[in-house]
UniProtKB/TrEMBL annotation:
<feature type="transmembrane region" description="Helical">
    <location>
        <begin position="74"/>
        <end position="95"/>
    </location>
</feature>
<protein>
    <submittedName>
        <fullName>Raffinose/stachyose/melibiose transport system permease protein</fullName>
    </submittedName>
</protein>
<keyword id="KW-0812">Transmembrane</keyword>
<feature type="transmembrane region" description="Helical">
    <location>
        <begin position="139"/>
        <end position="161"/>
    </location>
</feature>
<feature type="transmembrane region" description="Helical">
    <location>
        <begin position="245"/>
        <end position="264"/>
    </location>
</feature>
<keyword id="KW-1003">Cell membrane</keyword>
<feature type="transmembrane region" description="Helical">
    <location>
        <begin position="107"/>
        <end position="127"/>
    </location>
</feature>
<dbReference type="Pfam" id="PF00528">
    <property type="entry name" value="BPD_transp_1"/>
</dbReference>
<keyword id="KW-0813">Transport</keyword>
<feature type="transmembrane region" description="Helical">
    <location>
        <begin position="12"/>
        <end position="35"/>
    </location>
</feature>
<keyword id="KW-0472">Membrane</keyword>
<feature type="transmembrane region" description="Helical">
    <location>
        <begin position="182"/>
        <end position="203"/>
    </location>
</feature>
<comment type="similarity">
    <text>Belongs to the binding-protein-dependent transport system permease family.</text>
</comment>
<keyword id="KW-1133">Transmembrane helix</keyword>
<dbReference type="InterPro" id="IPR035906">
    <property type="entry name" value="MetI-like_sf"/>
</dbReference>
<dbReference type="InterPro" id="IPR000515">
    <property type="entry name" value="MetI-like"/>
</dbReference>
<feature type="domain" description="ABC transmembrane type-1">
    <location>
        <begin position="70"/>
        <end position="264"/>
    </location>
</feature>
Length: 278
């Protein structure tokens, strides 16, 4: 029995290390490639750079107009986070705490939207809608579409809401709080871990979004986000390939995601601890 336990642990560690290797090796290759020349990348003869070209980052920053595009990406991502969390948390509170006609239908529709790709399939009707709202030449059109794709965050908060005792609502009602005030003053602060996880998922999705910003900023390049700007690094003057600059830009674009994860890491731990306790 002891030998079987040891063998099981060895197999488990081999599996985990294999998954970690498969996950991390593309990131390592990108980081190392960002310090190489384009000729080295094309040849692919060496794993480590022959000489470390830190200037690739400066060139990528200037050529991709990183400062402007980063501000645009931050605006889209942060606005999408705030809007998604606000809409999802209020919807989760109403669905969990109140009874109304069509409640099951609403939950079913939310589930259905999770299986519809918010991409090429619905891009044309989304764009036509934003044209009617006069938001097709603005990043606000992108933000509204990203907020509308909130079903997964709704279900995260909805399941988390079920763990908050209803006695708190009853006590607040006795103290004279309206449902709206109960939500803002009592329920929302208790949703902290769920909101942190939802914020991370929403920020990551909005930050990495490429198709929507590309379509909505075709006539206004100054509104392009970082993902769209990075694609412009692929070819330089005379259509010369600039893969090394693209890798350097990709490494720079990863940094905000890492910062967001560091802020949301505590929420992940709290959700994991809560699920184990339950």
């Amino acid at each position: 029995m002891r030998l079987r336990t040891i063998l099981g642990k060895i197999i488990l560690w081999i599996f985990l290390l294999t998954v970690a290797f498969i996950t991390l090796i593309p990131v390592v290759i990108t980081i190392l490639g960002s310090f190489k020349t384009n000729a080295e990348l094309t040849a692919g003869a060496t794993f480590l750079p022959e000489s470390w070209h830190f200037s690739n980052y400066a060139e990528a920053w200037s050529q991709a107009n990183f400062s402007r595009y980063t501000l645009n990406s931050l605006m889209v991502s942060l606005a999408a986070v705030v809007g998604t969390l606000l809409v999802s948390s209020m919807a989760a509170y109403v669905v969990d705490r109140m009874d109304f006609a069509g409640k099951k239908l609403y939950i079913g529709l939310q589930s259905f939207t999770m299986f519809v790709a918010v991409g090429a399939v619905v891009l044309r009707p989304q764009f036509d809608l934003m044209v009617k709202l006069h938001l097709h030449n603005s990043l606000w059109g992108v933000i509204l579409i990203l907020i509308s794709a909130h079903a997964s965050i709704f279900f995260i908060l909805f399941s988390f809401m079920k763990g908050i005792p209803r006695e708190l609502d009853e006590a607040a009602l006795i103290d004279g709080c309206s449902p709206g005030r109960t939500f803002w003053r009592i329920i929302l602060p208790l949703l902290g871990p769920g909101l942190g996880v939802g914020a991370l998922f929403t920020f990551r999705g909005a930050w990495n979004e490429y198709l929507l910003p590309l379509v909505f900023t075709m006539t206004k390049p100054e509104l392009q986000t970082l993902t769209v700007g990075l694609a412009n690094l692929k070819y330089g003057i005379s259509a010369a390939s600039q893969t090394h600059y693209m890798m350097a830009g990709a490494c720079l674009s990863i940094l905000p995601i890492l910062v967001a994860y560091l802020f949301a890491n505590k929420s992940f731990m709290q959700m994991t601890a809560g699920s184990l306790k339950g």
